[in-house]
Amino acid sequence: MPVSGPEPATIRVATRRTPLPPYATLPVYQALARRFGRDQVFLLESAAGPKRDRKYQFVGFGELLSLSVRRDTVRIEGTASLLGPLRRRIASLVHDEAGVLRLRRPRDLWGVLREVHALFDAEGSSTRFRFGFLGYFGYDTVRYIEDLPLLIEEGPELPDVHLVLHQGCVVTDLDSGEAELLLHESDAWPALDRDVLVGVLARAETDHPVPRDRPVPPSDASDDTDAETYRSDVERGLEHIAVGDVYQVQLGHELTMRSPADPVDVYRRMRSGNASPYMYLAHVWGQTVVGASPELFVRVENGTVTMRPIAGTVPRTGDDEAAGARLLADEKEIAEHIMLVDLCRNDIGRICRADSLRVPDELVVERYSHVLHLVSTVQGEAEPDRDTYDIIAALFPAGTMTGTPKIRAMEIIEETERSRRGLYAGAIGVIDVGGYANLALCIRTLFHRDGVYRTRASAGVVADSVPAREWTETLAKMSAAYWAVTGKELL
């Protein structure tokens, strides 16, 4: 008769909550970054957009543990007392090759992520972020779900998946205006001094006032694709559509800017010029991620799974009413949008009760700094035996960033684009151990390292696409990021 081994160790965590007056988020980020280091702090905030997408703002600090996966290699770093128990928990899912951990199978990624959660005995929440992780899921996370070709050469080194646990977080409820300091305490790590932190936060706006407009430093820009080449890419996409390979495929390109601009200044400009419901300033593997995404990838709230696909774009030209009317009258844009809403319904249907699927909002025109978008809301109630990682794996990547059918569209993307997408078209946000998750689609995003900023955008190619128009759409989508770095308009 087999003898079961001991239960895996868990780390008991208690969360100490301290009410705070409301603070401006960026000064809080800067104050905590000065104390802990920028690589130890993240900022997630909602600066504009529909009320349903603007609930909470977070500034997390004090990294305790990180787990990264890249090309099946697992890297864990952090507080020594956490590393041993976590390594034991994931031992059956990885090979230890001379100290280098590698997944036994690609799909074992999801078991490893579940074990990171299971390591902690903590009070989480199914309705908001209390205790959990900042999560990054790059576009290549799909390789832990599907078997796809790898044709594009490697780009800047970034993880496919990255989870980070922080010791504290300042949370602001945008509905009530109330804020609180959450400090996670355990025998496994030294405690932070709450009173000192409250003092740091109280002085944040005085110590880090919003500066007057600073001159934007000069920059140089280059693209991995020119207009003529991109138009040829679209023509190739149209050929695939004509023979029935796909109904739609998202094809994009990457813009690189060399600039000495500080990422915090770039974020500030991005926030002023392209205020969005999902804004982020964070660090991963030596890169700073600066984003102003309009699109929710997925929110899981008390078992309700929500996606808000964006598909259909026109540049803002000064008359939003007329442009919005043209968008709603554009048969190509409407057909593309409905097709991708149906794809979202199919994806959500894989992990939700069939009788719970609904589309409460459809074909709503929303305004952003440089473009108008068509947006819908798709929801369902998760099956009781499905967890956050089942949901992410079922939905990933967003169909609005691939096309349909997904797998064939992704194969065409791999054959056509010239640089790896990295975190672009992936997701970034928070995941609570109690079941709550809120992840933004990683678009309208800049990646900064060593004086170089990169951003990218794609456009949906359908049967009646006009190649020159799709090129213009990608430039419109990159305009806010380009302006934030260079101070110049792209169009």
From TrEMBL:
Disordered: annotated span: 207-229
InterPro entries per the UniProt record, alphabetical: ADC_synthase, Anth_synth_I-like, Anth_synth_I_N, Chorismate_C
Anthranilate synthase component I N-terminal domain segment(s): 28-175
Domain spans labelled Chorismate-utilising enzyme C-terminal: 227-477
Record Pfam families: Anth_synt_I_N, Chorismate_bind
Signal peptide positions on this chain: none
Protein name, per record: Anthranilate synthase component I
Organism encoding this protein: Streptomyces prasinosporus
Protein's gene: trpE
